[in-house]
Amino acid sequence: MRLRAEERGGRVGYSVGQVAAFAGVTVRTLHHYDKAGLLSPGDRSPAGYRLYGEADLVRLQQILFYRELGFSLDEIAEIFADPQANALEHLRARQRKLEEEIARLRRLAEVAQRAIEVQRTGVPLTPEERFEVFGEITFDLSYATEAELKWAHSAGRREAMERADAHTKEDWRRLMEEAAAWRAELLTAFDQGEPGDGERAMDLAEEHRLHISRWFTSCPFDMHRRIADDFAADPRAFALVVPHSQQRPGLAAYLREAVHANAARRTGGPAEPEENR
């Protein structure tokens, strides 16, 4: 349908409804731009209706262009308010942000691909078998995704994932039985009031470090400290070693203390890295 424009004094004007139709926006949006001071119709029809002129349409195109790039209305108003404003600098800054967002989305796509590969190449287990092998240990997808992004370029994490993918159902059964026996010892030591920097707790920390090395990847003491820090800081991480039903208040911090004390005992360094003291 051809839209008729109002002609007044040799000038062509378009109603708000007409502009909304051919610009692909709503009338409400145009009213919002008007209220925000970004785009006000510059003319009126003989009947008193406000009309958009050619210059208004050019300005609308600019607004829609900046909006498509993610600029807020306040940012667009700032660009329009200063005739000397360097729009190129604004565009370059937006380009940098868009490239960062593209990189982030690519990393997420890689994580999704990784999850697909794990599902495709991992050990197929029925829900009954999964509970039989893993018990109450839960794998929080949100934590797994964050960890994948955080450690994506870590050789240790890559090795751990590759070795985990290669484990058979029987491997996982043995691994989890070993972990359950260690966990029972940890809970007993904690419940009996053994100090976190005591011999028994440190020995348990060393067993945990060797467990990681045996089943996943070489775990030097600095890596083990970072893992324990995650246990104390993030309940989702700690749930990978102690299910929620078996956790006690302070247990994650207790394990962290034991890990740091064990690292200090075996390396001769401080129980706590200097940056954390």
TrEMBL record:
Residues 13-82 form the HTH merR-type domain. One of its GO terms (molecular function) is DNA-binding transcription factor activity. SUPFAM superfamilies: Antibiotic binding domain of TipA-like multidrug resistance regulators, Putative DNA-binding domain. Gene3D superfamilies: 1.10.1660.10, Antibiotic binding domain of TipA-like multidrug resistance regulators. SMART domains: HTH_MERR. PANTHER family: HTH-TYPE TRANSCRIPTIONAL ACTIVATOR MTA, REDOX-CYCLING DRUG-SENSING TRANSCRIPTIONAL ACTIVATOR SOXR. This is Transcriptional regulator. The lineage of its organism: Bacteria, Bacillati, Actinomycetota, Actinomycetes, Kitasatosporales.
